[in-house]
Structure formats: structure tokens, C-alpha cells
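Q: Predict the assembly, please.
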Amino acid sequence: MSVTAAKGFRAAGIAAGIKESGNPDLALVVNDGPRLAAAGVFTSNRVKAAPVLWSEQVVKGGQVSAVVLNSGGANACTGPQGFQDTHATAEKVAGTLGLNAGEVAVASTGLIGVTLPMDKLLPGVGTAAAALSAHGGEKAAIAIKTTDSVHKTAVAEGAGWTVGGMAKGAGMLAPGLATMLVVLTTDADVAAPDLDRALREATRLTFDRVDSDGCMSTNDTVLLLASGAAAVTPEYAEFADAVRQVCDDLARQLIGDAEGASKDIRIEVIGAADEDDAVEVGRSIARNNLLKCAIHGEDPNWGRVLSAIGTTSAAFEPDRLNVAINDVWVCKNGSVGEDRDLVDMRYREVRITADLAAGSASAVIWANDLTADYVHENSAYSS
Amino acid sequence: MSVTAAKGFRAAGIAAGIKESGNPDLALVVNDGPRLAAAGVFTSNRVKAAPVLWSEQVVKGGQVSAVVLNSGGANACTGPQGFQDTHATAEKVAGTLGLNAGEVAVASTGLIGVTLPMDKLLPGVGTAAAALSAHGGEKAAIAIKTTDSVHKTAVAEGAGWTVGGMAKGAGMLAPGLATMLVVLTTDADVAAPDLDRALREATRLTFDRVDSDGCMSTNDTVLLLASGAAAVTPEYAEFADAVRQVCDDLARQLIGDAEGASKDIRIEVIGAADEDDAVEVGRSIARNNLLKCAIHGEDPNWGRVLSAIGTTSAAFEPDRLNVAINDVWVCKNGSVGEDRDLVDMRYREVRITADLAAGSASAVIWANDLTADYVHENSAYSS
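A: Predicted assembly structure:
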């Protein structure tokens, strides 16, 4: 499972003492090759954490031999010291494992605006390196958790090759990307440009379409590493499909574990003039706090869906809009439709279908409800 | 006070039985002239309630002789029937008072997607007409409340003339405009074009800059009526200033009474390249759920401010950003600044100052914190 499901990778997850709780907080993933190809996608937030700035440069070379990830501190908004700390972490990994620091990606997650305890992190790198194992993927996935209630892994099998991965993220999930760290690995023999293409296609349709709370992180990082250890080069489409499957699986796990959520909301926009319109409308619905509260209260308040659609620039006529909640078309032609009492909202998954009646494009966005637990968790996080 | 502070106006507020609670739910404001000049600003939501579509047309003529407002139902997303109901309401007011229906504005607030009980509303118009009084402004303000905990009125005095007003709105406050019904009156002798200009300038800087929960209503209506009864035509600047004062006063009352809020957050963006940048950044901060939760928890979590700024397209360099919370500059040059423990957040008002260090433009946006009470109130509203 996880990042060691594919051959050619070792991983470890240990407690370095970065978290005051003593829980695991440092993960290491090493690509033993023979290929060291890699691609990455990073947050589109313009305020980027030091490890994001570093890893963007590392990935540009198309080769990554190791990834070091820590929870317990985001190393974001930490100034020049933060960047030096990231650099020192990569150097420490490189020195310990005999690698080139320019091929060591770094990822961090936790509170913004706090420098990392390097006196704990650097020795932790040595401990993690000593613990590296071809079965260490699970422990690595555990070590990157922050407020996650469970660790998240996924795998897809090809003919003689595998794509595996791990993710962390529980809140602050929004397009571009979520507050997530994701490492995907494959033993397929795929060159960096194809990895990049497959990863961008997959994230566009998966991680970029989960929107837990509308907030965009400073640290989001998704990496895909290929070892080539299976000595198989799959058809591109087949490979891309496996990458998308793993991303989709992990994205759903992120939504399912979102902070304080009691409902997973699947928003499907249909009848859009084009895909951009469908995504814009889906995100607007996903971010409507009033609707998210209503869903929490199991109230099929379709008026709030229309109100959210009305704030977008998508092509539609208000009196042609149709909305279904759990397949009951409660709004037809912009007005009252089927009886809202027919909507059964007892289950965790709630499906909203918004028909713009303006074309044939569609998109699916996943979101969560807004709950008192979300408020509690996020009003006390740093205290 | 309220809409009858200015001479030439009568008003009433009565219980027509639209609300099941039996609370007041119908207000009437009549302009007895000699002038009947009027201007209006309406929601920019593309899904507009029937009364908005109607009143937009009424106001285009520049003359309004009466405004009828109901709480207990928004008459939004109610199809052709909803528009007929609005039309019938205006006709009923016109017939009862001997006016032209084309000069009767209509405003509604309450649940979306429910048709109004016209069998109660139309007789209510007769009751309200019989109750009209030059001292009825307060009762009118009470009759337009929905989840408001208090009714909201304001007044500004010129030299021999007055601007007064009433507002309702407690949630769904967002730019363009808030979920608000506002009626302003003046006895100054001002023609419709100047009313329009003064009202647009005032709303741009007041109602358009309160953002309680990021949600935009289908029903927002702000009307300004001039009776000319004071027989004074003030200087334009002086008049516009009085209108802005009243709007500012009412806007602050809306934020102060926002659903479930425990904090009013004043977000001032300074050092912006232009005012548009300042407003964009202010709104992004105002809508960040994670920050709103942190403020609720009295946690000066400036990382979430930077994270919100980073999602905008405003001109700034991440490593030049400065952020103060209650005047303590907790973030300097995009990194850790003064000790966050110096920030005292015990009071209801919290001031966030975001310095983009990119110019000299600024803007102020008012927002609220996000609380469990907001979730409770909005998850149960229609049930």
C-alpha cells in the first residue's frame, strides 16, 4: 500500500519531536530507481511556504531521489530563516543518504508563521533514514497527519506495474489545491514529461475539485515519482488512468475526513455551456456557507443553491434553472418543483444536481457541510 | 426617527398574518410630496426575486409614491405566479391610496421558493394604509425584521432638512448588496438623478463593504425617496454626505446584529496599488472561514490572513506584507513580527490591518466571525 506499493521505493515515518504530542511527525520516501523521474503540482496561493518554493525548483529538473515531509509546522511565512531551514533539511537528507540535495523535495504541514525546531528535525532525518523500509509506506502516511483522523493511502494496479500514494489533509481543502501533502509513486518506467502531464490531468479532475471550506493553503504539494523498477512502460492513457484513480481515491478520502464535517456533498453541474461554467457554478455552490449549514441541518434548501448560482458569470437564464437534491427535482424552471419533503437527507452523502439548461458540459465538485464542530476545531487550533 | 424623520412621509407597520408567529410582517411607506423623486440600488445576484424585478422598473421612472415591504416570504424563485403576486400587491396599494401602481415599489424578505399568502397580504395592505402616520417609521422598521434581533433606524440632519432610514438584515450580508431591505427618506428637495448619484456613492462605500457570510441575496433593495417637503435644496456634497452617514450607520447596525456573530471584524487594507486591489483583498480576508473561526476563538492567527491575501490577484510581494491585529503588527515583511501574545481580543470589535506595501490606496470591509450559533441558526432556519 501507500508509497511503497510500487517497487523501487523505501519509506519511513518516525516521531522526531516536532509535535509536542510526541506523535509521528517526519516521513521520508526514497526512490531507489533505476529511474528517478518526477513531477509536481503545487499550491496556486501566491503566499507560498518555503518548502513549496524549494520543491518547485527541485521538480523542475525532472529528477527526485527523495522526499522528506514533516507535520507539526508549515514553515510558511517564516522569512529567509524558513528557506534556510528547508535547504538545511534537504542537505541533511542528501548527506545521510549520499544523494544530491538538488534532487530532494521537501514538504511541510502544520501552523503557519512558526519556524521549525531544527534541533529536533535534523536528528530526526537520521532516525528516519535508518528506518527506511520497502514496507514503510504506512508509517510514512501516518507521520504526515495533522488534524486527520485517519491516514490515507491508495493504490492502482496495472499489468506488471503499480501506482500507489499517500495523502494528508483534513481542512482548508480548496481548489488549487487543498491543504494537502500527497506523494504518489510508481514503478512503471515513465519519463518526467509524461509524469507531469498525467499528474496535471489527474489533479485538475480530482484534488482541484474538492472544496471543503473554500480556503487555499500555502503548502499544498502533490508529487509523483517513478522508479522504473517494474521495467514496464505502459500506454500513456492506461498510466494516466491509474494516476487519476489513485488521486480520485485520495481526494475522496480527504473530503470524507474533513474537519468537523457530517456530510459529504457531491455537487454535479450539468447542462453548462462549457466546463469552465460548470466548475465556476459548482465551486460557488460548494462555498455557500448558508447552504452548507442547511445541508448540515438536513434541510433541502434549494433557494440557497439558486442564490449561489446567481452570483456566477456562467451562461444561464434564471427561469430555466433546475435543481435536484438526492435526485428529487425540488426546483424546476427556477421555481418550486417536486415536494421537498420527498428528499431523504439522513445519509452522509448528499447529492446536489444543478442543471443550467444552457449546454451539455458538466463537472463534479465535492464539498462538506458547515458544522459547529468545524467552528470549534478551527477556533482552537493554534491555542 | 426612521423613514418618518423627514417631513412629507407617513409609514405603518402591522401584522398581516404572513408570518406564522403573528409578528409584524407588513410595512408601508408613503411619500406625500410635493416631490416624489426616487432612486434605487438592487442586488447584483442574477437570480432576482419578483419584487426586485418589479421595483427596478418602478425606480427607472424616477418617481416613487409608496413602498410596500413584507417579511415572512422573499417571493424569490416563485415563477410567473410570484411576479403576478408582486404586481397585485402594488395594484392593491395604488387602489387603496389612489396612486399609480407604476410608482409603487415592492420589497420582500424571508424564505426563497415559497409563494406569498396573498389572502393575508392583500387585506394587510388595507390595514396598513389605515394605520399610516407621520410617526409610523418605528413600526415600519419593526415589521420588516426577519432574524434581526433589533430593528434598525438612523437619521442625519442638514440645515433645515433631514435624511432618515430603516434597514433589516442579519445574515447573508455580502457585497452587491447584503440581504437587506433599506428605505431612506429625505425632505430635501433633490431631483432623481442626484438621488441616484448620492445613493450609488453611499452604497458603494457602506452596504457594499459589509460581508457577514459571503452570501449574496436575491432580494436586496435600497431605496431613497425625496419628498421636497422641507423646501430646501442642499449642496450636493452636503446631501451626499448625509446619505452616506445614514447608510454607514445602518450598515454598521447590520454587522452588529449578524446571525450568531460574537465579533465584528473591521478589515482595513492599506498600501494597496489601487482601491480595487484593496477591496479585493479585504473581501478575501472577510470570507476566509478559517480566519473567521480563529477570530471567534480570540486567536490572532495572522497566517490565515496571509493565506487569504495570497489567493487574490492584487499587486503585492509576499515578503513585504505586514499585518496588524488590534494594532499589534504580528506579521512584518511576510514573516513573524511582534509577539502575538500582545494582542488583546477580548472585545467585540477586532481590527485587522493588512498592509500590501504596494501603493497608497486603502479600503475598509466589515465582517463577522464564524460561530457555532451561526451554524445552528442557519441549519434550522426553514425547518
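Chain B has ten helices and 16 strands. The radius of gyration of chain B is 21 Å.
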